[in-house]
């Protein structure tokens, strides 16, 4: 049987690993060809290693193993010209564009030397990068295309990204992700007459490198000098209403797939949380 995205092309940023790779593979499983973009370079303000060119190649191999076409390009979402060039490269080989997954994101929370630049880095990638991605893709989107933006449940909860332990980068991350709510809704209104849908997915703690790093662990367990993964699992679990420490990347990908598919053809301007009840728990 044909997949839910058979014959479509999906543009995914931050696709070298983590949620981005999961999205690219999951959409390919349902028939989509993929334009995969990632910067593949570290940021001084980010306390965990960023994806590499080898990671992006691993995404390419996984998609090709599914029998789908993929164009993998190194590009910086902060630079709109680089994204425009990446889209043109993808169009030349894949022939069209139907789905945009603006997923690339960072959480700059360096444990030492915190500066305003951390705030700038977060906003440039997490907000401006999304806007650049949409802008680069928009001229090529036809009727019934779908744009899916990655937000964050934590950005709407006090004491998380705004925790003083996170510094300016945490503030920038939270502010950027909150701005995306209004951006999503505005774009949904302005693209509705073209039947182009715009929605945002807001993950909770997700089992990726953005969650599993020493600075994040220290924020959850400030009482320990060098907390381990096992040390923070109770805190991660307590963050949610459901008794799980985190969700898996594929849990987010399944939501992205739904929003990209024709099953969601009249769903636009929505903010969908995949958060195991985290936000509701804070309101009890």
Automatic annotation (TrEMBL):
InterPro entries in UniProt: NAD(P)-bd_dom_sf, SDR_fam, SDR_subfam_1
Q: Which SUPFAM superfamilies match?
A: NAD(P)-binding Rossmann-fold domains (SSF51735)
In Gene Ontology terms, what is one molecular function of this protein? oxidoreductase activity
Q: Which Pfam family, giving just one, matches this sequence?
A: adh_short_C2
Identify its protein family.
Answer: Belongs to the short-chain dehydrogenases/reductases (SDR) family.
NCBIfam families in the record: SDR_subfam_1 (TIGR03971)
Protein's name in the database: SDR family mycofactocin-dependent oxidoreductase
């Amino acid at each position: 049987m044909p997949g839910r995205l058979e014959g479509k092309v999906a543009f995914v940023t931050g696709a070298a690993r983590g949620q981005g790779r999961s999205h690219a593979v999951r959409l390919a499983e349902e028939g989509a060809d993929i334009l995969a973009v990632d910067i593949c370079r570290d940021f001084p303000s980010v306390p965990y290693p960023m994806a590499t060119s080898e990671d992006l190649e691993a995404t390419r191999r996984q998609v090709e193993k599914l029998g789908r076409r993929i164009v993998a390009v190194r590009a910086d979402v902060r630079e709109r010209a680089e994204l425009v060039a990446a889209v043109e490269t993808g169009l030349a080989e894949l022939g069209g564009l139907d789905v945009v997954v603006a997923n690339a994101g960072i959480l700059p929370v360096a444990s030492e030397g915190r500066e305003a630049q951390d705030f700038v880095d977060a906003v440039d990638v997490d907000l401006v990068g999304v806007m650049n991605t949409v802008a680069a893709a928009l001229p090529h989107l036809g009727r019934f295309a779908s744009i899916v933006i990655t937000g964050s449940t934590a950005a709407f909860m006090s004491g998380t990204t705004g925790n003083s332990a996170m510094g300016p980068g945490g503030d920038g991350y939270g502010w950027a992700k909150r701005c995306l709510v209004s951006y999503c809704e505005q774009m949904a209104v302005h693209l509705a007459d073209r039947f182009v849908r715009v929605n945002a997915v807001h993950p909770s703690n997700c089992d990726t490198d953005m969650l599993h790093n020493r600075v994040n662990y220290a924020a959850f367990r400030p009482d320990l000098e060098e907390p381990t993964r096992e040390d923070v699992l109770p805190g991660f679990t307590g963050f949610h209403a459901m008794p799980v420490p985190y969700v898996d990347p594929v849990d987010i990908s399944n939501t992205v797939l739904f929003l990209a598919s024709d099953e969601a053809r009249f769903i636009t301007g929505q903010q969908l949380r995949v958060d195991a009840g985290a936000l509701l728990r804070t309101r009890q």
